[in-house]
Amino acid sequence: MTAFAIQSVLLWSDALLFVLIGVIVGLSLWASRQDALRAAWARVAKDGVAMAAATVLAVFVLIGLLDSLHYRARLEPQPGAPARYAVEVNSALDALLSDLRQRAEKTYSAPLATHLYAKEALADSTQREFPRLKFGGAHLGDNLDNHEFDVALRASRGLAGGLVVWLLLVALVRRVNGLDLKAVMEVGAGGTATGAIFITLLPIFLLLGLAISLGGGYHVFGTDKVGQDVLYLSLKSIRTGLLIGTLTTLVMLPVAVLLGILAGYVGGWVDDLIQYLYTTLSSIPGVLLIAAAVLMMQVVIDTHPDWFATSAERADARLLALCLILGMTSWTGVARLLRGETLKLRELEFVQAAQAFGVGRFAIMRRHILPNLMHIVLISLVMDFSGLVLAEAVLSYVGVGVDPSTISFGTMINTARMELAREPMVWWSLVAAFGFMFALVLAANLFADAVRDAFDPRSSA
Amino acid sequence: MSILSVKDLAIQIGAARPVDGVSLDIAAGECYALLGESGCGKSMTALGIMRLLPAAAQVAGGTVEFEGGDLLALPESGMRDIRGGGIGMIFQEPATSLNPVLTVGRQISEALDLHTTLRGAAARARAAELLDQVGIPDPLRRLDEYPFQLSGGLRQRVMIAIALAGEPRLLIADEPTTALDVTIQAQVLDLLDDLRRKRGMALFLITHDLGVVARMADRVGVMYAGQLVEEAPREAFFDQPAHPYSVRLFAALPDAERRGGRLATIPGSVPAADVRHPGCRFVERCSEVMAECRSAPPPWRDVESGQRVRCFLPGAAPAVAAGVGAGDTAIAFGSTPLLEVKDLQVHFPIRRGILQRAVGAVRAVDGMSLRLMPGRTLALVGESGCGKTTAGKAMLQLLRPTAGSVQLDGVELTTRSPGQLRPLRAKMQMVFQDPFASLNPRLRIGEIIAEGMQALGTGAGANRAAEVGTLLEQVGLRADMVTRYPHEFSGGQRQRIAIARALAVNPQLLICDEPTSALDVSVQAQILNLLSDLQRDLKLAYLFITHNIAVVDYLAHDVAVMYLGRVVERGMAEEVLGRPRHPYTKALLAAVPRVDGMRSEVPKLAGDMPSPANPPSGCHFHPRCPLADESCRRAYPAEMLFGATHAVRCIKAV
After folding, report:
1. Distance CA A153, CA A147 (A)
2. Which are the contacts of A460, defined by CB distance < 8 A and separation ≥ 6?
3. What's the pLDDT band for A2 if we cut at 50, 70, 90?
4. Is this structure's pTM higher than 0.95?
5. CB pairs under 8 A between A and B
6. What is the C-alpha separation between A112 and A211, in angstroms, rounded?
7. Is the pLDDT of residue B139 over 50?
8. Which of A269, A357, A455 should we substitute to test contact with B (largest number of B Cβ atoms within 10 Å)?
9. Cβ atoms of residues B117 and B200 within 8 Å
10. According to the model, what pLDDT value does residue B327 have?
11. Which residues lie closer than 8 Å to A67 by C-beta, 6 or more apart?
């Protein structure tokens, strides 16, 4: 144990995320053996827009996963004492971005700026001036005339780097698959729209090159009130958004599926009860319900500080609780959808044939109803994802979202509220949060659309 | 002088050609029947003529001339005048071809607006007149009603009224009576025939039913795989069909003369629409194949005056040796009934108000009794809505009966709990109507068939897999099909799978709920043959729920006729079908369109079946009965016995 300079930390949300990924991998292995499912996914793979969206999503997921590998760094060993670890919990992403994380300025600075955004009284001057940034453009020294040239140089270097990496990748794929360029650009192995993937990868690589090259010397998206790099904040927000989007669905889905099928198939008083439950739940204003639950949960967390070893664990608990609460309040829509579909399926003859054999209720629900509902489940799962990412932003903006120490799009937008009212206006953190969230939600929506089309029985003919 | 002239019409959907070179002429005032099985392209032809093809389909060639003008060259605005004004069209499903949120009057005046100058009160008067012409009583009241307030037969009449509003010279009727009961079908067919004669309107009738063709057509065109294969005047066609396909269609029809024998079937299936045919399209399924059939498409050849056929065979195709009736095949196995139903009632409560109190009941089955001996076939006959399917489900305890008793092999079923019923479920099984809805699309064939064995614990482990294979072979499929999914099979094959699933638990009784009504004639023949083979080999008893009298004639030993939840006449098949005594049975039999074109003298039934929520007093049949008088309204008639087995509930029966 002591051989490593780090101690890995498994937060609850990390564990759940990895379980979820395991489940998805397992399900896709299972689906690849089901002809109908495989055919539907093959239709998704053929769709250029879907594959482009999937590529963007994959980049986001990769960042989110890197941000979910948590550890505590070992402190300088004291001779004779047992190894001690830092209180701060960091992730692999933090380690990759340690430059961005540690180069904090004093307060606001505009994107690619060399000076702070606010005037201060300087020690060697009688006037209030814009002080130089500690890190942004520090390599320029006093030679500030070079600033624009340096930015252009770094930008073109970054773009060129991105292009080169992309060309290398294309060449590599060509070599491995033995295809000519045209074939790669159209439809590649197994009918997948590889062309769309590569075309999407090109801007991603270009942006990546730009960010790396410029980020080496400047704050690409500026800094926030306490001088943190906004690019770093945006990247850290991705994990929060993904977690809220996926874990909430994970919480919601079993409830929605179980109650929806029960209400539809069993009928009678069970149906009445479940209907009353979801009618009641959905008639309470959503934000109010969530706010009440979040506040109660916060009291519980605050009164039991001994439950959490680090502040990261506490923030994580609050994030999980938010997922749970969102899940418990958002299952009604899917349950209602599934109930309706079950009512239809229940009258179909194959269900009656099973009843004629004396097959038990739960066996019928599992064998005959559930598999025929899976396309609806899948579609609503993907569609809900983007809604939940947006819901987090709204809730955090209202103040009942994630822990204030958790970096999320919602908290970024929340602080941007004050920044926009400031004169001169600070616009960059809102724009950065908006840009990232827009890309994530748009990609998820486009992907969901393609999935829905592929699984819609009417369009499969 | 032909009013509609179609030449070499070809319709393309992607690579497929559902219609490939159809030429036909319809003279003014003539009824031309286009006959074919599902998927042969007959509806597509009609839509192509009307230029109403679905978005994916397009006309790939040919011309359509209506009254001398080329329809395919008309602009869309010109076409709009033709539709409804020149050519009217009615569709198969009256339930979906009317707009549910508009009154009948609005929907008729929409057509009047487009094609006449009548407006306001004049249009309303004309609409009422049209309703009157199509035989709807009390037309002024009906104008303000919504489609849901009308029965299926009335809705189809409204559809016809709308089609007539623009005074069309040609009416295209796409399976106009397929969704209707035989007594209603007879009414609608009479109406169409009548209108045609009165108005001198040509009728282009699309149907799969030889009986309807015999009843209505002046000329017949037989379509197969996108092409016309035979065209003939009705008499010539029914005297001597010339194409091997037509000959087989006739031989596949079940009727009383073929009882106990096998029906002729057409091997194989219709070729897919995207197959290119170098020779004759029927070659794979024909027994008279010659060398040239495969190499070149057969040319049209005149057989006699007006009859022409697309076949190389000289003369007419030889008749197919259809099984000649061996008479009654039933062997009585013991004298105790296998299934005995006494006074069975299934009522569905009608609930109203906030507290959902029951204010009445739909008496779907209202005191029915019947008895089925082992190894015999009892046909339960009746129109839709008479409660026959509900009765079948109540016997299986899929629906719990409200009252009455159901005894299987002497064991009372109605008082048993679901757990106690489970061991008895192996003795009785059900085959459903729709082979597309009765198999779970997500399960493999093997899993579907093994489900019953698994649930009832018969067969085990490796044994079970072998048994599934045997079952598949027993119903005429291959044992290696177990790993496939239902969507890979045709309708007839799916029905075989459904039968294999029911047989998997070795039942003694099979309740077959319209098992062939969703199938084409040639496939129906295969399934009926299979059922009679299985009965012979496994000594099964069938309760055959159907509205198809021809099928009953072919395979039933006993018949029970149901009307509004009760059995009105029962007895041996030859008694009930040969010498029907109840006026309803007589009317039902008379309404069936016969292939030999003979009309019976029994008066056709007027009106519809009353609602089972509110049955008429006394004899349920009296409002429609030609013999009814005051005594019929007073009490429900008791059962009168004619001989040992023939029982009738009618005081007028003689």
Report:
1. 10
2. A39, A40, A43, A454
3. very low
4. no
5. 62
6. 11
7. yes
8. A357
9. no
10. 46
11. A91, A92, A93, A94, A235, A236, A238, A239
Name residues 486-545 of chain B within 8 A of A (Cβ): 487, 498, 501-502, 505
| A201, pLDDT greater than 70 | yes
Cβ–Cβ of A358/B418 closer than 8 Å?
yes
Q: How far is CA B537 from CA B476, B506, B531, in A?
A: 14, 12, 10
Spatial distance between the Cα atoms of B36 and B40, rounded to a whole number of angstroms: 6
Indicate yes or no: CB of A354 within 8 angstroms of CB of B443: no
* CA–CA separation, B630 and B614 (whole Å): 19
Which of A355, A367, A375, A378 to probe by mutation at the B interface, max B CB count within 10 Å? Answer: A355
Contact criterion met (CB < 8 Å) for B442 and A349: no
Q: Is the CB of B451 less than 8 angstroms away from the CB of A36?
A: no
HSE, CB side, 13 Å, CA atoms: give it for residue A278.
22
Test mutation, A345, A351, A352, chain B, max B CBs within 10 A: A352
**What is the β-pairing status of strands B227-233 and B219-224?**
antiparallel
Helices B583-591, B182-199: crossing angle, 10 deg rounding: 50
Q: What three-state secondary structure class fits A339?
A: helix
Distance CA B356, CA B462 (A): 52
Q: Which residue among A35, A36, A354 sits closest to B451, beta carbon to beta carbon?
A: A354
Q: Name the H helices within A188-310.
A: 194-215, 230-266, 268-283, 286-303
| Cα distances (angstroms) measured from residue A417 to each of A405, A411, A414, A427 | 17, 10, 5, 10
Q: What is the Cβ-side half-sphere exposure of residue A166, based on CA atoms within 13 angstroms?
A: 20
B-chain residues within 8 Å CB-CB of A356?
Answer: 396, 398, 425, 429-430
Comparing A36-40, A203-207, B406-410, the range with the smallest average pLDDT is A36-40
- What number of other Cβ atoms are within 10 A of residue A245's Cβ? 26
Q: Which residues of B touch A367 (CB under 8 A)?
A: 440, 443, 451
Judging contacts by C-beta atoms under 8 Å, the chain A residues touching residue B434 are: 349
Q: Residue A223 carries which DSSP code?
A: B
Q: Which residues of B touch A353 (CB under 8 A)?
A: 430, 432, 438, 498, 501-502
| Inter-residue contact B350 to B362 (CB < 8 Å) | yes
- Could A352 and B398 be called an inter-chain contact, meaning their C-beta atoms sit closer than 8 Å? yes
Residue B441 contacts A, CB cutoff 8 Å: yes
Q: How far apart are the C-alpha atoms of A382 and A447, rounded to whole Å?
A: 8
Cβ of A407: how many Cβ atoms within 10 Å? Answer: 22
In this complex, is the C-beta atom of B459 within 8 Å of any C-beta atom belonging to chain A? no
Residue B96 makes CB contacts below 8 A (sequence gap 6+) with: none
Q: Does B485 touch chain A (CB under 8 A)?
A: yes
Sheet strands (E) in B476-557: 509-513, 541-546
For an interface test with A, the pick among B389, B439, B442, B454 (most A C-beta atoms closer than 10 Å) comes out as: B442
Three-class SS string for B1-62?
A: CEEEEEEEEEEEECCEEEEEEEEEEEECCCEEEEECCCCCCHHHHHHHHHCCCCCCEEEEEE
Distance CA A123, CA A134 (A): 15
Query: What does the alpha-carbon distance between residue B155 and residue B149 come to, in Å, rounded to a whole number?
Result: 9
On chain A, the residues whose CB falls within 8 A of the CB of B443 are 367, 371
Q: Is the ipTM of this complex over 0.90?
A: no
B601 CB neighbour count, 10 Å cutoff:
5
B207 in contact with A at a CB cutoff of 8 Å? no
Residues 6+ apart with CB under 8 A from B596: B214, B238
A286-300 pLDDT, tens digit per residue, is 888 888 888 888 888
Would the CB atoms of B451 and A357 count as touching at under 8 Å? Answer: yes
Q: Across-strand partners of B343?
A: none
